[in-house]
């Protein structure tokens, strides 16, 4: 008893007892506590990846390879990210109906839930841009004037200054941006689909992307006003220059002919 009492009075006795109590509590909590939110999210993500892999094997693997490594019929998808999948599949461009200079937008054949599952699987193959949140692409509170400046500097060369689209070389084209979901515009800037260059956050900030989306929403909205009257299709300086040459120069020629005729008539008189 004296020995036991002496051990109880040992300086480390309280520490040992506390350690044993904490270990016992941790063991009981691990054994009986329900799975936490993180574990549930991880399980849900794992299920989404598995389902996305199944969808990929049916609709995508024939062109992009069984592991997304790419083939002669389709590029590698490793590292393209979830945003690229959400854009390409969410606009109906993928799966492609047939090869060509450019894959057109068409009817979407997957539900949004299935698109999310495909995106989860492709994202698991390699890090890439994620699907943006509504706060990232919503035009609310953005600077429309700044967006117009950025659009004319970086985008108008192909899409024309109001986003009407235009022809490129070898059968390619810049599609119209009228009626395009702001999320898909943001994703296109992130990922650079087909012939378009990409504009990651290191090149164009999230705020700048929002400004561009706000500008397009303003010029292509239901209440768009043409301050100059006739819009000429909104195709920019090419159509305006053609209008000036055809009608402006034509009017000058007509005036010159009229003046010459009047002069000749006056001389005869």
Automatic annotation (TrEMBL):
Q: What is its EC number?
A: 7.1.1.8
Reactions it catalyzes: a quinol + 2 Fe(III)-[cytochrome c](out) = a quinone + 2 Fe(II)-[cytochrome c](out) + 2 H(+)(out)
| Entry-linked PROSITE patterns | CYTC, PROKAR_LIPOPROTEIN
**Enzyme class label:** translocase
Main subcellular location: membrane
A GO cellular component term found in this entry reads:
plasma membrane
| InterPro entries tied to this protein | bc1_cytC-su (IPR009152), Cyt_c-like_dom (IPR009056), Cyt_c-like_dom_sf (IPR036909), Cytochrome_c_Oxidase_Subunit (IPR050597)
Keywords from the UniProt entry = Cell membrane, Electron transport, Heme, Iron, Membrane, Metal-binding, Repeat, Respiratory chain, Signal, Translocase, Transmembrane, Transmembrane helix, Transport
Where does the Cytochrome c domain start and stop, copy by copy?
A: 47-126, 142-220
Q: Which GO terms describe its molecular function?
A: heme binding; iron ion binding; quinol-cytochrome-c reductase activity
Q: For binding heme c 1, which residues are annotated in this chain's numbering?
A: 60, 63-64
Question: Which Pfam family, just one, is annotated for this protein?
Answer: Cytochrom_C
Electron transport recorded as keyword: yes
Oligomeric state and interaction partners are given as:
The cytochrome bc1 complex is composed of a cytochrome b (QcrB), the Rieske iron-sulfur protein (QcrA) and a diheme cytochrome c (QcrC) subunit.
What's the name of the protein?
Answer: Cytochrome bc1 complex cytochrome c subunit
Q: What's the source species' lineage?
A: Bacteria, Bacillati, Actinomycetota, Actinomycetes, Kitasatosporales
